[in-house]
Amino acid sequence: MFSKLFKNKQVEEVPQLSPGIRESMMTFLGTRGIPPMPNSAQKAFKLTVDPNATATDFVEVIESDEALSARIVKISNSVYFDRGTPSRTIEESVNKIGLNELRCLLNANTLPELLPSANPLRAQLWLNDIATAIFARNIAAMKCPALQGTAFLGGLMHDIGKLLLLQRLDEDYAKIVKEVQLGEHNFCSAEEEHLPFNHCQLGQLLAEKWNFGPDLMTIIREHHEPWNKLNSNKTNHYLLTTVVKAADIIAHSLGIGHATGFASFRERNLENLDEALGNIGIPASQKKSFLERCHIDFESESEIYLS
After folding, report:
1. Counting beta carbons within 10 angstroms of the beta carbon of residue 14, is it exposed (0 to 12), middle (13 to 18) or buried (19 or more)?
2. pLDDT on residue 83
3. Among candidates 168, 135, 170, which has minimal Cα distance to 242?
4. First vs last Cα of the chain: how many Å apart?
5. d(CA 34, CA 274)
6. Fewer C-beta neighbours within 10 Å, C or N terminus of the chain?
7. Within 13 Å, how many C-alpha atoms sit on residue 132's CB side?
8. Could you read off the pLDDT of 260-295 as tens digits, one per residue?
9. pLDDT over threshold 70, residue 93
10. What's the rounded Cα separation, in Å, for the pair 138 and 236?
11. Alpha-carbon distances, residue 197 vs 6, 7, 23 (angstroms)
12. Cα separation of 207 and 209, whole Å?
């Protein structure tokens, strides 16, 4: 579904999973394997990554889903999009919201259906994904304006491997998260204490199954890699990964998606914040105002993506 957007890119540019890691993940997934992407999400994804999609295309997809139609009309009439005249139809709502924002809204309102779990951690992880997406899009507006939509989608999807681990392991994954909360582990190292792979590698396997393009696949696989590795590669894949990595650190530094008791984890991210900001061109003199803007953006925008 992503081939049209990335037809001039080569998937081989993304580091390949080793046969041993791939075999370990397939054994872990067992007979259930990797779940297919739900039809509603497939339609939204295909549309939002198509640069030639028209307003009519969006109207048709939204009108085919009653629940989504209701959400889009409600969002278009929210304070955030208030233009003085209420929207009554999908067409009016699409025109008011605009296609660029609508791409983000469709993804944010259809992706929660992926990899469902009743574990309370699911909502916390998704909240962090939303914050990372908002911050990544806003950073991209400064660094690479043409890639804002992909940056937003990359922020939403960067931790999809965690969602699959939570779905399959449930309380056992909650124990891994507890180790991150209390100890010096980051998520990858904590996961590797219990499994022969981490959420980035599992996320890449899922991205392959769902035919994601190399930009998204690189973000999912590489967003915990060192800055010097990301900066040494000049492709859009790695530029976007730098953006999402910084956005993720900012979200954690602000404590977004953290349950009670995550103070130590937040502090570790605050220690990495200056380096993250430096890698997206934010000087120390602008740190305070930039973080205040991030907090304001999240407070004003998150409601429309969590509707």
Report:
1. buried
2. 81
3. 135
4. 26
5. 38
6. C
7. 29
8. 889 999 999 999 999 999 999 999 999 999 999 999
9. yes
10. 16
11. 28, 30, 10
12. 5
Q: Which residue has the tokens 């991209």?
A: 140
Note whether 261 and 181 are within 8 A (CB).
Answer: yes
How many Å separate Cα 99 from the centre of its chain? 19
Reduced to 3 states (helix: H, G, I; strand: E, B; else coil), residue 185 is: coil
Query: Token pair for residue 68?
Result: 């989504």
Q: Which residue type occupies 131?
A: A
Distance CA(189)–CA(176), nearest Å, equals 10
Q: At CA 202, angle to CA 196 and CA 207, rounded to 5?
A: 160
Phi, psi of 68 (to 5 degrees): -65, -40
Contact predicate 181/276, CB 8 Å? no
List of residues 6+ apart from 131 with CB closer than 8 A: 247, 250, 251, 254, 256, 257, 298, 302
- Decide: residue 193, CB within 10 A, 0-12 exposed, 13-18 middle, 19+ buried: exposed
- The answer to whether 154 and 219 have CB atoms below 8 angstroms apart is yes
Alpha-carbon distance of 83 to 76, in angstroms, equals: 9
Quickly count: other Cβ atoms within 10 Å of residue 78's Cβ: 11
The structure tokens listed for 205 are: 């396997």
Burial of 99 per CB tally in 10 Å (0-12, 13-18, 19+): middle
Question: For the residues of 144-207, what is the DSSP string, one character each?
Answer: -GGGHHHHHHHHHHTTHHHHHHHHHHTHHHHHHHHHHHHSS--HHHHHHHHSSS-HHHHHHHHH
- pLDDT, mean over the chain: 90
Structure-token match 């507006």, residue found: 141
